[in-house]
Design goal:
Number of domains of chain A: 1
Radius of gyration of chain A: 13 Å
Number of domains of chain B: 1
Largest interface: A-B, 18 and 15 residues
Number of strands of chain A: 2
Strand order of the largest sheet of chain B: 4-3-2-1-5
Strand order of the largest sheet of chain A: 1-2
Low-confidence stretches of chain B: none
Radius of gyration of chain B: 17 Å
Strand content of chain A: 5-15%
Mean pLDDT of chain B: 91
Helix content of chain A: 40-55%
Mean pLDDT of chain A: 93
Number of helices of chain A: 5
Order of helices and strands of chain A: EEHHHHH
Distance between the termini of chain B: 35 Å
Oligomer: heterodimer
Chain lengths: 102, 160
């Protein structure tokens, strides 16, 4: 389905995750973040860039991997994205929701 | 004002056993709750205390006796070394699916904001002291304290 995000029509699935990463822009990410009550800071964007890169390299994301990433630790991840960090950050990043339980 | 629509807001998990399969069930449920933005707390009581006991938490076993899912005769499951063997095999499988060991899992949960509580009554019964336990537990509390922790709309309690 299509949803208007940051003034553009964007393809998303029924949970609001982008289905076509080529439609992602920083403005789209910013608008999704705002919907989730998150104000993006430079640190947030660093994490988003890391997640997008991992996704590009086909790495399956999990909380445990975040902890071992050397980019940020789990505690900071929860501080940046308090309401379900993996779920929220991947939505902002325009990549699929990880199917991980850990 | 947000209206309550029956969603789960807090999981209060009581872990009373120290067999690896039960410990992991509690940990995965608690950590999984935090990943969904749900609060989570674990109350370690009776044998469950071994999962936060520094000397014991690295040596937990799965149960080979009285566990029909092992698909082995009970007599065989009771042979010396059988539990260690089954545990070793299970740990190998868990590493493959990126499952942390017990100590790392505790670290992950604490970093994720899961609160860990030791049951006062069971601590007294086993003669455990605070310094015997994993450093980052929230404290040693009574059942009443734990219930108080769980107050509020949308709290669910789970006994393992």
């Amino acid at each position: 389905m299509e949803k208007e995000i940051a003034g553009k029509m964007i393809s998303v699935n029924d949970e609001g995750y982008l289905t076509d990463f080529s439609q992602w822009t920083k403005e789209v990410g910013e608008a999704i973040a705002a919907e989730n009550n998150i104000t993006m800071t430079p640190r947030h964007w660093e994490v988003i860039a890391y997640l997008q890169n991992e996704h590009k390299n086909n790495v399956a994301l999990s909380i445990r991997k975040i902890g071992k990433s050397n980019v940020l630790d789990i505690k900071e991840f929860y501080q940046l994205f308090p309401q379900g960090p993996l779920k929220t950050s991947t939505k902002i990043a325009g990549i699929p929701k990880p199917a991980s339980c850990i | 004002m947000n209206e309550y629509h029956g969603e789960i807001r807090k999981m209060m998990i009581i872990l009373s056993k120290a067999t690896l399969e039960n410990v992991y069930a509690a940990f995965v449920l608690a950590n999984g709750a935090r990943m969904e933005g749900i609060e989570a707390e674990i109350f370690f009581t009776f044998f469950g205390l071994e999962a936060i006991h520094k000397q014991k938490l690295e040596h937990l076993h799965i149960a080979t006796v009285g566990n029909p899912a092992m698909h082995m005769p009970t007599m065989l499951g009771g042979l010396p070394g059988m539990e260690s063997l089954a545990t070793m095999m299970m740990k190998k499988e868990m590493e493959k699916i990126d499952m942390p060991d017990v100590h790392e899992f505790l670290d992950i949960m604490v970093a994720s904001g899961v609160k860990l509580w030791a049951c006062k009554l069971a601590m007294d019964m086993f003669h455990y002291k605070k310094e015997d336990m994993y450093d980052d537990i929230g404290g040693i509390i009574t059942v009443g304290d734990f219930y108080k922790q769980g107050s509020g709309i949308g709290t669910h309690m789970l006994f393992i």
